[in-house]
Amino acid sequence: MPALCTRLGLAEGTEQEAFSSKYKYAQRRLVDVSAERLLPIARELAEDEAHFELTEEIAKIDERDTPAITTLTRRKLITLFETTPLATNIDEIELLKSVWPIGSFPAPTGSSESTLEQHILFRMFIDDKFPTKQVLEAAGVLTCSRSRLSKFLAAVTSPEAHPPKKKAELAGKLDALLRLDGYSLVVAGQMSGSPFFEVRPAPNGAPADEGISTTLAEFNPTHVHARWKAALDRRTVDPQGAITLARTLLEDVCKWILAEAGQDYEENDDLPALYRQLAKLLKLAPDDHTEKIFKQILGSCQSVVESLGALRNKLSDAHSSGPKRARPQPRHAELAVNLAGAMATFLVSTWQERQRESEYKL
To answer: Is 45 helix (H, G, I), strand (E, B) or coil?
Structure first.
């Protein structure tokens, strides 16, 4: 104890003094230490000595001036895991032990077991079911530091925890919850060819996101707007899926407008064919205009639609990727989704304007 205190910059003392009470020995040397000096001392001690509680307190101090992941969001996370296992490829207890020292945590109140780990094993033996809600609350999901919670979310979406498809679905749901508090679960790298995730501050999003959402929600909240929201949610966690949804969003818009206009179309028509039919209806084909600048803009719109279809065929999850296919990054998905959102809004707004013009003529 004397050597440790001296190394941490505290006052010297004798072994005899420490032998009588280590707690009092340290307390006498810390009582006059300023708050400014205390935190660096705690950091140095935490680096040398594995101490869960100390590490958590330091993390909470570091996070006090940053946005919190609220208790409400944390409860929603716990509710999500009541129907979704923490892991399917590895033991759930081992996953928890990689985040929390559950072997030293007390069992929940009213339990006959001594530790949380013993309680989990007992309940699984008795009920043949992992007591998710009780365990996550006892581990501290509702009160732990944001960094500890982030470590947990990274663990449950690691390549070792779930098969790729299930992992991507879970990551999308977690990301949607975290975004409510200004955070996002994003791809941070790859492990043996499989992506792994980490929690980061969420980007503010494209400036037009809110306007697009409003327009599409007013036009068709159940299908079109839902597709748009799903594409937004997947931009960072599932770029391939987001690109697929970007194309499908435009297909939805084209079909819904054509149906409202009483126009027939073939169910197997691809996006370029649907767009050409709709562009003719809305007088958006370049040949419908004489001004050179409008012809150029509308020609570019047609190119955007055709390119989104081609991008979906090349980079989305609609077909097997194979060993040589390029893998899209979040920035590629963001470009595709934003372009699709802008075009969808333009088509909806144009259709609504054509309807107003028709009513005015009547």
So the answer is: helix
